[in-house]
Write a structure and sequence with these properties.
- This protein is mainly α and 325 residues long.
- It is built from 16 helices and no strands.
């Protein structure tokens, strides 16, 4: 618990420092955003100023925000002083704001699911109906207020989560038929689905053992060229799916190993009946459906560290049960 609290609070403070630094050192970007220009690049520019890939940064921030909400509930359950409660509430609001600021779709989806899991796991299980309804009302007002403020200052968010995300879905595998796809569908769902379609076809051709660990991406790019998908080949898109990436490289065993690794975290969460651990499992599982974080050092370190901490906590609880029996 102390590690989780230290991690969430420290990360929020560090991000606040970088946010203030971003405002001071990149006033021209802030001016553009205030005037509604190039709003789509805000989160990516902020992440680049830190030197971190935006989806990876927001995966961390989503977990921080989930932890921060958990500690808000804990502070009320333990009847802590109002100063401590307010500190937890401010940390939660800041952490949620940073998730919105970096503004990646999977992180926002995961953080909202995490909030629901923590609410049901930590509030409905421990409080009476009146307390649950009061807490739900405060949470909805807080989240709604932050979300409303952000959407009002960043109207592109409405467009991103509707027309931009689901544009040109009839062009799956035919992105070159779109005029200037690099401007229109670079970050759209149709591009990801086109990549997955090509990746799946390549993987099926090389079953049961795959193309090898070092040949995954080169073979995928070669397949783009063979199937006349020039846009995908030009920008050398990776699979953006950890399970599919390992299926291409290692064949049938690849995704099974990924599932064993990630679902071990899920087992720990459900065995402990701990909403924070379950939220982490859901966050990391879904993040690897749309990206390949086990190919990145930060993704490996992030998941490995928390798996070790959750595993240690699981062992401690098992030992306590054995001693009490």
């Amino acid at each position: 618990m102390k590690i989780l609290r230290f991690y969430s609070l420290t990360t929020t403070i560090i991000l606040l420092f970088f946010f203030i630094r971003f405002i001071i050192y990149f006033p021209e970007l802030i001016h553009k955003y205030v005037n509604g220009n190039d709003l789509w690049e805000m989160g990516y520019e902020f992440s680049n100023s830190i030197g971190i890939h935006a989806p990876a940064l927001n995966m961390h921030l989503a977990f921080v925000s989930i932890c921060s909400l958990f500690f808000v509930f804990e502070s009320f359950r333990l009847y802590e002083k109002w100063t401590l409660k307010m500190n937890n509430i401010i940390a939660f609001i800041l952490s949620f704001f940073f998730v919105l600021f970096v503004n990646t779709r999977m992180a926002l989806f995961n953080v909202l699911i995490g909030f629901v899991l923590v609410f049901f796991g930590e509030v409905m299980r421990k409080y009476n109906v009146k307390k649950v309804l009061e807490t739900m009302a405060v949470l909805i007002v807080t989240l709604g207020g932050v979300l409303f403020f952000f959407v009002q200052s960043n109207p592109y968010m409405k467009e991103k989560y509707s027309s931009v995300t689901f544009a040109y879905m009839d062009k799956i595998g035919k992105l070159d038929e779109i005029e200037h796809p690099e401007f229109k569908v670079f970050n759209s769902l149709v591009t990801r689905v086109s990549i997955w379609k090509s990746g799946w076809e390549l993987a099926v051709k090389n079953l049961p053992f795959g193309v090898g660990a070092s040949d995954g991406k080169p073979e995928l790019i070669k397949y783009y060229k063979q199937t006349n998908q020039h846009f995908l080949a030009e920008y050398e898109f990776p699979t953006h799916n950890q399970f599919l990436d390992f299926l291409i490289k290692f064949g049938i065993l690849g995704p099974l190993v990924v599932m064993l690794y990630i679902f071990t975290i899920g087992y720990l969460g459900f065995s402990l009946k701990n909403a924070v651990v379950i939220s982490f499992f859901f966050l990391f599982f879904t993040s690897n459906l749309t990206d390949d974080f086990l190919l990145r050092f930060d993704g490996i370190a992030f998941s490995g560290l928390w798996m070790a901490i959750f595993g240690s906590y699981w062992l401690q609880q098992k030992l306590l049960l054995i001693k009490s029996s």
